[in-house]
Amino acid sequence: MSKDDKKTHHATVIASYGNQCKIETTDKQLLTAKSLKSIGKPLCGDKVSYKNEKNNETVITEILPRRSILSRRNNLNPKPKQIAVNIDQMIIVVSANDSIKYGLIDRYLIAAIFSNFTPVIALNKIDLLTDDKAEQLKNRMQNYSDINIPLFYISAKNNKGIKALLDIMANKTNIVVGQSGVGKSSIVNAILLDQPAITKKISDSTNKGKHTTTTAYLYSIPGNGKLIDSPGIREFGLWNIEKSELAHGFKEIQQHSEQCKFRDCLHHAEPGCAVVAAVNEGTISKQRYESYLSIFESIDEN
């Protein structure tokens, strides 16, 4: 074994399968590595230290400090499952149709805000809309433009809007999330161009369906960016969020809450609530406020 093999090197975890990981070294090599049990489980996006052992094994010896973590709740286990780390931006993919679940968008936004990610909304399948329907959709999404959430109208099928989305993803680590059927993998494939997502290969090997991503995987994308394709997330349970904290996930509600009569106002039924007044005046959208109330009531159930 050479002197160089004894050194500690640094890498990024591309994918994690228990204590086995795919890592990318600083000189862009892809290696399979095993992590020491004592350091915990590396996650997709982790920055790690590793060594090359005598038996030609690559061993991860340290997980470097994380700046952010994305978790989701498993219905069979109340403890959140950590998916990926060191994320800068969350791309929330929604199917552009009449059945958009605005409450689900708001849950994704809350997850992004509490995880310290910048949220972006990508509305896919606009090729299926007439001009009138497209205009109606933009009007309905104005609530999000008003609070400065970037919106992108995309057709992954026709490659429309992908370049604009790539521009905002440059120089950041991005995670793409969305329910099954919204075309998330189609957007990922359009972004990756000549390195299509491995979702089909993974699903074939695990018998989980041809269009289901089962393992978070990190890709390099144009503009010095990174893209993490996440497992399909059907629900964001708001674990670790108290009712008193929920307003922080709604930018416009948080801003108006500073004018409430009571400091501990929950913007539900309290007298002198500036948030309720703003809703009645039309300053805060009724749709967003109703979403806040619905999530507020659901927190005890999580």
What features would you describe in this structure?
It is a single chain. By secondary structure, the chain is α/β, with parallel strands linked by helices. It folds into 3 domains: 3-63, OB fold (Dihydrolipoamide Acetyltransferase, E2P), CATH 2.40.50.140; 69-229, 3-Layer(aba) Sandwich (Rossmann fold), CATH 3.40.50.300; 243-301, Probable gtpase engc, domain 3 (Ribonucleotide Reductase Protein R1, domain 1, Orthogonal Bundle), CATH 1.10.40. 28% of the residues lie in helices and 26% in strands. The chain contains 10 helices and 13 strands. The strands form 3 sheets. A 6-stranded mixed β-sheet has the order 10-9-8-11-13-12. Strands 1-2-3-5-4 form a 5-stranded mixed barrel. The chain has a two-stranded antiparallel sheet with strand order 6-7. Helix 2 (102-114) packs across helix 10 (286-298).
Features:
single chain; 302 residues; alpha/beta; OB fold (Dihydrolipoamide Acetyltransferase, E2P); Rossmann fold; Ribonucleotide Reductase Protein R1, domain 1; 3 domains; six-stranded mixed sheet; five-stranded mixed beta barrel; 28% helix
Rounded to the nearest angstrom, the distance between the terminal CA atoms is 53 Å
**Count of helix runs:** 10
Superfamily (CATH H level) name of the largest domain: P-loop containing nucleotide triphosphate hydrolases
Q: Please count the beta strands (DSSP E, at least 2 residues each).
A: 13
Strand content range = 25-35%
Please name the CATH architecture of the largest domain. Answer: 3-Layer(aba) Sandwich
Spatial order of strands in the largest sheet: 10-9-8-11-13-12
Query: Taking all residues together, what is the mean pLDDT?
Result: 86
> How many separate domains make up the residues?
3
The SSE string, one letter per element, is HEEEEEEEEHEHHEHEHHEEHHH
Structural class: alpha/beta
Catalogue the unreliable spans: 198-213
The coarse silhouette is globular
Helical residues, percent: 25-40%
